[in-house]
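Board notes (copied after class):
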Amino acid sequence: MEDNKLIAEFDGWKLSSDGITYMNPQDKDDCWITEEMKYHTSWDWLMPVVERIKDIEYTRRGYDDEMDKIDNVLTCDLRIENLYKAVVEFIKLYNEK
């Protein structure tokens, strides 16, 4: 579930002092351990991350290919596992730059 951890951190969740629980920045009572996070299975969890990615000025930052992958899944594929993979690839590149 390393990829869920990667997405959670991109999404603004903060790792608590216990080192295994993430806290929602919007609601401090909303806590999840990485294994229970649902980015890989829930559209409700993943789509807000996609929206956040879409808000990034990706063209000027060189993310065109990664955005094309996300857009392709959203328009042609619509399988959550493929969107999840595209989001993870984007975040990895984003974190490198």
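Comment from the instructor: The longest strand covers residues 21-23. The mean pLDDT is 87.
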